[in-house]
Amino acid sequence: MKILAFGDLHGDSKLAEKLADRAEQENVDLVVMCGDITYAETSIENLIGPFIKKNKKVILIPGNHETLATAEFLARQYGATNLHGYSIKHENVGLFGCGGATNVGPAPILTENEMFYLLKAGHERIKDMKKRIMITHMHAADSKAEFSGFKGSKGIKKAINELKPDLLLCGHIHEASGLEEQIGNTKVINVSKEGRIIEL
Q1: pTM, two decimal places
Q2: What CATH number does the domain containing 88 carry?
Q3: Exposed/middle/buried for residue 42 (C-beta within 10 Å: 0-12, 13-18, 19+)
């Protein structure tokens, strides 16, 4: 299975079109959007549509720049899947996620407990899958991305430790774009706005 994952579009419709072309050229099975699709919701136009026009299955979560309602609206409008507190199965892979942030707005701000329990709830349905991928907008507490000065989420760190996903895809910290690390059993990748091809 092949995934194109990225985050932090921040309303850049030209970048969305470029990434959609890449998704087509790479013949990916899934497109995963790791939040901050908009820039403080100033525009939602032409951000998901380019991928749908290429007949790509889109999975998204909200970042800290769009509300939960906007993420759900975008998912419903384009037939995408909002993975916030939810999960899906694709072939032998289970994906689950939680958007938002615990320490910075404009929206939505979650408590650490909410972050963990939304991830746990999503994971429950896919816990027996051969491969499990966790999707968040934020980075985990004590991760390398904290070099940016922004503390990571303790709820995400707890989910890594207890749920032990094979892979965590996140964004949020632009300075950490492309950063990879291993936290316990979990490989962590900050996918960046340029996108990352993940082959499973």
Answers
A1: 0.96
A2: 3.60.21.10
A3: exposed
